[in-house]
Amino acid sequence: MDSHACSSRTDIQRTGETAPLIGELKPIYPPSVDGRAGCETWSVEFSPDGSYFAWSKGHGIVKLLVWPLRGIEWHTTPQSTGTPKDNKERTLHCGTTVWGLAFGPRTSKFANPTDPKRGAPSESAPALLLATGLSNGTIKVWEVETGHLCFDLIGHQSVVRDLVFTPNGSLTLVSGSRDATLRIWDLTKSDKNVHVLRGHTSWMYSCSVSPDSSMIASVCRGNPKVYLWSLRSYTFIRNLESSHTRLVSCDFSPDGALLATAAYLTNWETSFWDPYTGEHLFRLQECLHCNLTILDNPIRAVRFSPEGLHLAVITEDREIRIWELGQDEPVIESELRRFSCGLCCTFHPQGGVIATGTRDGFVKFWRVPLVVPSLTHLCRMALRYSISTHQVMALPIPSKIKDILTYRNFRDHYQLHCSYHREMQ
Known about the structure:
single chain, mainly beta, five-stranded mixed β-sheet, WD40_rpt, ubl conjugation pathway, repeat, disordered N terminus
């Protein structure tokens, strides 16, 4: 069996298909004719149970919507999506541009429900919160069910670019800012105890927390280094040495064994790292023909799917690409359209749908492949959530199995072949 065959598709049978658009949200206010900022959708997020959708719709406004949205066909089981206490959408007025959104608390899907350190739900589970990172450096935290403002977190000196709650079920919030710092907030403390991580050389663009809540990864402007931090000791671990200075996004795989980072110069590239050893494993590059015909094609975001088989790539020329690990063609992609200006994306936690936000304030919902992971992939995901690469390498098992468990069974380079240029060949 091919070592890269890790899933079977249940609803999309061919690679390179046009991404099925199943719905969109349109901004009330049109973009300004002189190109001034303010209307952008900088962040979109689903709640951990999939029952809410948050949209940073520009002009300092966040919309909280109950999922599924009216008019969107949604295939899921009754148990897979939480049920809100009411069916009301809510509008949160933040007063200034909203750059980051994060729901919390959240728990990794691979957490052991009997282990409190892995995020076991308590009998008195905390209310669902939404954190909003603002351009003035403030973080506003809202109660989702009521829409009430709980408190403001003050400390950052510039734009709060990214936010994420730790996936261990606690109310620990990580924030990254253009003031070149990361801050870790404990929202259960009355004084909102905060740890500040310093070391970035410029604006912090993106941060991600490993599924076991042990590490933070972050990237900043004009620096080829990926930063890894310990979330247990609040200290710097190591840098991953990238060849590109324009790193813009990073994301851990659901098992924590891979870290994807996105960069661009005149074309885009996504690298995949082992965060435990710092080793560069493989990379995905833009279509060669697109690279020759589109001289500047910025990448904006990368995000792993909930089952860890797919990676969403948001670029300037297409609003969405979905790539399956180990393949040379995208599973699905939106149409080639210069300056489509996608900015962000998020998968529904049960899969099947991805939402993307654009520079002109739109949100679009795309149907993505529903997959049945192979037994190999399920075993790898379950095992790698619990043990590090060093522990895998010490196991008394064949080297080929070690390669599979550590994602070293992939080629070191994948050149994406987009559907447009594939048809021209």
